[in-house]
Amino acid sequence: AQSVSQHNHHVILSEAASLELGCNYSYGGTVNLFWYVQYPGQHLQLLLKYFSGDPLVKGIKGFEAEFIKSKFSFNLRKPSVQWSDTAEYFCAVGTNAGKSTFGDGTTLTVKP
Amino acid sequence: DTGVSQDPRHKITKRGQNVTFRCDPISEHNRLYWYRQTLGQGPEFLTYFQNEAQLEKSRLLSDRFSAERPKGSFSTLEIQRTEQGDSAMYLCASSLGRGVGDTEAFFGQGTRLTVV
Q1: What whole-number distance in Å separates Cα of residue A78 and Cα of residue A61?
Q2: Residue range B58-106, pLDDT digits in tens
Q3: CA quadruple B60, B46, A101, B40: dihedral sign
Q4: Would the CB atoms of A98 and B33 count as touching at under 8 Å?
Q5: Which of the residues in chain A have pLDDT under 50?
Q6: B98: nearest CA in chain A?
Q7: Are B48 and B33 in contact (CB under 8 A)?
Q8: Confidence of residue B47 (pLDDT cuts 50, 70, 90)
């Protein structure tokens, strides 16, 4: 069975700080990995995805993630966060984009 | 807005009543997914359709739950004899699937169910 673990439930940063959100997964087959973001009052949106190829994936709004197969990890990073990045972030693993197992999410609060 | 649309956005019902939610996917998307999300947790997969065929159901989907997608377009999720534990956000997503995989799923804003 698939499982996803997000290490931090709540992260608080000041603007311009660097961000790294941890995600580890357990899955026996070929993995497709995703990060979603949910801004307050809005729907889940895809930030970035990894299917194959270059393990360093770039997404929207300056986010990137690195797939490290040996560590079963897919951590999300951003070099300099903005107040508008305040949101909940979900890591997911799945056989396709729609059928995924999600982590419990990390709430990011960016202080201006 | 041409995204995934869910109706209603909020539903309060008494325990024991039946409720039905509707999801309208992005028009050309052949795959449709239902998820449930409770407070403090990530979305949990419930079921998915490819066109009108229901291809997979999670064991979370008890006998009181039924989902349909009669013409391969919109879908409904019905919960019979609601219980307080059914209180959650119900999310719908759609994607354009080709072969085994698809590359991006689009989520609706969800229907928040409160059972009192």
Answers
A1: 9
A2: 988 889 999 999 988 999 999 999 999 999 999 999 998 776 556 688 9
A3: negative
A4: yes
A5: none
A6: A96
A7: yes
A8: very high
Chain A residues with CB under 8 Å of B110 CB are 43
B65's CB contacts (< 8 A; 6+ apart) are B46, B77, B78, B79, B80
Q: Rounded to whole angstroms, what are the CA distances from A112 to A18, A40, B2, B106? A: 14, 17, 33, 30
Q: What is the 3-state secondary structure (H, E, C) of B5-73?
A: EEECCEEEECCCCCEEEEEECCCCCCEEEEEEECCCCCCEEEEEEECCEEEEECCCCCCCEEEECCCCC
DSSP 8-state code for residue A29: S
Vertex B57: Cα angle to B19 and B89 (nearest 5)? 40
